[in-house]
């Protein structure tokens, strides 16, 4: 009996035809786009419509670091259309760091029709890492200052030690007499 119920359940599920929009995007290692600060790169997504009907797609995106090339309010996809490209120009900020970038693709309700259709919404997030140019030489002023203060401290300590050692040499003045290797050189 369980077997018959299971087979009927599988037949009912298999009889439904489910189609939905889909998105294909450029591959990012660890979901991170790494750019030298201040530079730009093109990032693309491709919209797909496997359904038998025409579908309208709306695109919302974070405009802080992204700009869509040839932006449209609604992208209309023909039936069975795959590969409609949308290009983003992503610009890294001047300050190095890790930033979050996102976009949302959602179906637009068609002008006609009735019933209660399910409208899909796909949200995608990824990281944008702004890095320093590895081909340029950068001066760390904090480190230079730290080394300079350390060098001054070492110089002052060395100078103090050399004064002390000069006073303890064999050339010592005692009671008005100058001694050099335990011989009196002059008297006052």
Give a structural overview.
By secondary structure, the chain is of the alpha+beta class. The protein has two domains: 17-131, Immunoglobulin-like, CATH 2.60.40.10; 141-186, no CATH class. It has two helices and twelve strands; from the N terminus they run αβββββββββαβββ. The termini are far apart. The mean pLDDT is 80.
In short:
Helices cover 22% and strands 41% of the residues. By secondary structure, the chain is an alpha+beta fold.
- Average pLDDT over all residues: 80
CATH architecture of the largest domain: Sandwich
The CATH class name of the largest domain reads Mainly Beta
What is the radius of gyration computed over CA atoms, rounded to a whole number of angstroms? 38 Å
Structural class: alpha+beta
- What is the CATH topology assignment of the largest domain? Immunoglobulin-like
Main sheet: strand order: 2-9-8-4-6
State the separation between the terminal residues, measured CA to CA.
128 Å
Q: What spatial form do the alpha-carbon principal axes imply?
A: elongated
């Amino acid at each position: 009996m369980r077997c018959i119920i299971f087979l009927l359940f599988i037949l009912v599920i298999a009889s439904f035809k489910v189609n939905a929009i889909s998105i294909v995007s450029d591959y990012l290692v660890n979901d991170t786009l790494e750019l030298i600060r201040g530079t730009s790169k093109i990032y693309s997504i491709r919209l797909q419509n496997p359904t038998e009907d025409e579908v309208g797609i709306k695109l919302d995106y974070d405009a802080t670091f992204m700009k869509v090339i040839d932006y449209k309010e609604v992208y209309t996809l023909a039936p069975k259309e795959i590969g409609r490209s949308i290009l983003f120009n992503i610009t890294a900020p001047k300050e190095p760091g890790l930033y979050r970038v996102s976009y949302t693709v959602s179906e637009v309700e068609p002008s006609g029709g009735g019933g209660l259709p399910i409208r899909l919404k796909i949200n995608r997030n990824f990281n944008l890492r702004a890095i320093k140019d590895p081909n340029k030489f950068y001066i760390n002023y904090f480190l230079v200052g730290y080394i300079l203060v350390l060098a001054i401290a070492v110089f002052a300590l060395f100078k103090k030690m050399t004064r002390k050692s000069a006073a303890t040499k064999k050339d010592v003045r005692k009671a008005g007499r100058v001694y050099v290797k335990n011989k009196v050189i002059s008297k006052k």
